[in-house]
Amino acid sequence: MANIIEIESQYTSGVSSKRPLAIVRGRGARVWDDNGREYIDCVGGQGTANVGHANPVVADAIAEQARTLISLTEIFYNDKRAALEEKLVAISPNRANRVYLCNSGTEAIESAIKFARYTTGRTGILAFMRGFHGRTLGALSATWEPKYREPFLPLVPDFAHAPYDNLDKAREAITDKTAGVIVEVVQGEGGVRLGSREFLIGLQEICRARGAMLIVDEVQTGFARTGKMFASEHYGLEADFVCVAKSIAGGMPMGATLIGERVKKLEPLIHGSTFGGNPLACAAGVAAIGFIEKENLAARAAELGAYMKGRLERIESPLIREVRGLGLMIGVELKQKVTPYLHALMDRGVLALPAGLNVLRLLPPLVIEKTDLDVVAEQIEAVLQEEKT
Fold first, then answer.
1. How many domains, in total, are found in the chain?
2. Does 317 lie in the same domain as 249?
3. For the chain, how big is the Rg over CA atoms in Å?
4. Are 293 and 95 in contact (CB under 8 A)?
5. For helices 79-91 and 279-294, what crossing angle results, to 10°?
6. Using one digit for the tens of pLDDT, what is the confidence trace for 308-359?
7. Does one domain contain both 82 and 206?
8. Which of 276, 294, 312 is the last residue of a domain?
9. Among 293, 275, 332, 291, CA closest to 309
10. Strand partners, 361
11. What one-character DSSP code corresponds to residue 270?
12. Residues whose CB falls within 8 Å of the CB of residue 94, separated by 6 or more in sequence, listed in order
């Protein structure tokens, strides 16, 4: 067998920072490399693997649909699309009555930006410092991190950023020119930072009072990750748009924008997607959401997340500044850069993510066993005791 790393290194675009590891198989919360070595996966496809790798319910739905009909644009109706849209409206945290289907979280954000401008007739978009919403031009304009933004300036005009979890600053920034306000309930890439109830509910009230659309980015927090089906449910948020993706279809590329009642009627051709709402992804979505509900993965994430957070808080290390999280979305903020510790964990059979320069982030599949979480915590404790440069 040819060397996977050499071939991919030769032909890849180069836009992804890769670790020297070739993963070829997964099952549940474990993955295997090309040499057969097993790893506990707390990367979880960056949040796409909530139902576990190679989930048999999702795999069977994909296989059956692949033999039936793979692709069909939205100029025709389809049974799987109808079933998924009905399910998404039923579970939506914002009393959605319509759904826009697309292929990724970035696309869901792009559509919400367009629909907010279309509904209000305004152009201003407010986002928040340390927020991450994607890398296409509109979503990138809402993303805070300068290293993502600066190579592509100038970006889309009329975007502004305010400090996260600071309601007074947000109130100053939302004006009669603001079309939409984009916010994460938990900032994922920004360091696993939780917004307060006062901040999030206050944003909703200000948006309604001033005629702006509230856009909640649930791309990483949706589908039981935080201990509820959606993180909005922890605070009773009812946003005008809820943007979802990642685990919506059990790992298949898919995104959606859940559209609330305050959004005006959307006319044909103002937006669209060739692959959005294709029957294959919709069949996977119906199966994945059904699995999440049947197995009560939200309650499982709440229980295991609280257990893991407590386990990590008991680690005695001067390197740990804070442990924070919601459900099985957990961040360990260190006093040093996190990258050396991620590589040390990989050497020990645990895969984890960064969130900024110094936060170790865990996004394991929600089917992970408590015993695996114990191993992860033990290995984190071990690598923090080693000297890293």
1. 2
2. no
3. 21
4. no
5. 40
6. 999 999 999 999 999 999 999 999 999 999 999 999 999 999 999 999 999 9
7. yes
8. 294
9. 332
10. 331, 353
11. S
12. 216, 232, 237, 238, 239, 240, 241, 242, 258, 260
